[in-house]
Write a structure and sequence with these properties.
Distance between the termini: 49 Å
Strand content: 15-25%
Structural class: alpha/beta
Helix content: 10-25%
CATH topology of the largest domain: Spore Coat Polysaccharide Biosynthesis Protein SpsA, Chain A
CATH class of the largest domain: Alpha Beta
CATH superfamily of the largest domain: Spore Coat Polysaccharide Biosynthesis Protein SpsA, Chain A
Largest sheet: 5 strands, parallel
Shape: globular
Number of helices: 11
Radius of gyration: 24 Å
Number of domains: 2
Amino acid sequence: MATVTATPLSSETEKLSKLRSAVSGLNRISENEKSGFINLVSRYLSEEVQQIEWCKIKTPTDEVVIPYESLSPPPNDLSETKELLDKLVVLKLNGGLGTTMGCTGPKSVIEVRNGLTFLDLIVIQIESLNTKYGCNVPLLLMNSFNTHDDTLKIVEKYSNSNIEIHTFNQSQYPRLVVEDFMPLPCKGEIGKDGWYPPGHGDVFPSLLNSGKLDTFISQVTPKTLADVKGGTLISYEGKVQLLEIAQVPDEHVNEFKSIEKFKIFNTNNLWVNLKAIKQLVEADALRMEIIPNPKEVNGVKVLQLETAAGAAIRFFDHAIGINVPRSRFLPVKATSDLLLVQSDLYTLVDGFVIQNKARTNLENPSIELGPEFKKVGNFLSRFKSIPSIVELDSLKVAGDVWFGSGITLKGKVSIIAKAGVKLEIPDGVTLENKEIKSAEDI
């Protein structure tokens, strides 16, 4: 359980006063950002962490988490569908860098398959809707200061598409030095390392501050926001709520991770009425749980205070969850996930990644790749072509392993190269229920 150490009121007031004075001199950010940052820190210093009473947590019922199968089918009338789509804005959070997979730019420009990036697929999906139904669904990208410049250059390639693309930046907050609670940029760290984007919960105020919220409210009767992550949906005191691991008491962490009690998790997708967002942000009512994120920058211990967008669900009236099938959720967090979506397990249809019907097992194979494959560049260089894995149950690869082209993997396959040995899997081989430790085992 994340906790806040009790601090004497005078000490809190003094810290905030000094911090407010220091932040006022930071010319790199707007007055809205300064105000939002001070508000977040003030809450962190003064508010007690809301304790979750474990005994009150219940598995959500079909009244608060609706089975996907129970939703009404789409209308047969194209004009009715167009009318619904004309109320839609698609927002993607585009502030993340692909650093986990060794990339330096926006994660959205990692190639998924057939030379197409995540962003390409998103654009193709929306273009297909706009063409088929004669509608104008716009795409809205929330960038961070890390991805803003690159994204503006990237979206130029879509200038001739039948889709409007809008961008705005989420807030930029100074990292706090733990020792004295002063902004890191005031300590001489004038580069990007002195700053951070305060989590995807910032999407709501940034959408309002950017002016985009009012723009789209004036154009549509809006419905959608997309792509946030983390936690599990629970029923708590009669309301659907997002439970993050930071809120879980230590003695219940293993239970939280179990799929027996918590079978539903957040698939990083929100559908929200934009007028409701405007009303709640202007009333300062979206007070999501603060997530303290400690870091170290050039030997200095710093703190980032963040919020998660999904945690806002409890502030919206009549909020519900939808329990969607696994086929609608295909995250790519690591190169092992990238292997799945690049393989013959999937095909592309109108920008959507669809599971190959030749796969009889609805569950994806479990993929475990060693550190040699962690970065996208290394991952791609070690495969002449992605193996066929339609009949694969599990794959474990470790050590200096290289794959040829036209390889087929079936059943349970383990390839573990000995230390200091380069192990090459030749072109065209089929490995079925094999443990490979040397070339002789192939």
